[in-house]
Input
Amino acid sequence: MSNDKKIIILERIGQQKDIVKIRFAEEVKSQTSIVYIVAAINKCFQSGYSRLIIDMGQIDLPHNTFIATLIEATSKVRRKAGDIKIINMSEEARNIISGFNALSYLTVET
Output
């Protein structure tokens, strides 16, 4: 008998089951969430899904790397006429994401 515990849940939704909702089974630390969200998004891409919903209900404070991952994934799916929607985001997480500045994440030489 396995003690494997699901960290992340992928659920196909929509009338045609062409949207994947990604959610964490329990509250996770931001740094840990990055590994799982990247794996889940990559699994969706490999399976041909380009319409994703990310449920942020179990992530209180997204790390800059997590935000950058969401931006990169959104860019990829939009090139395939898809999109990523974020739901259940806390007010604090919303403030962090809205204040995210790519220049604070990247090193840009002038």
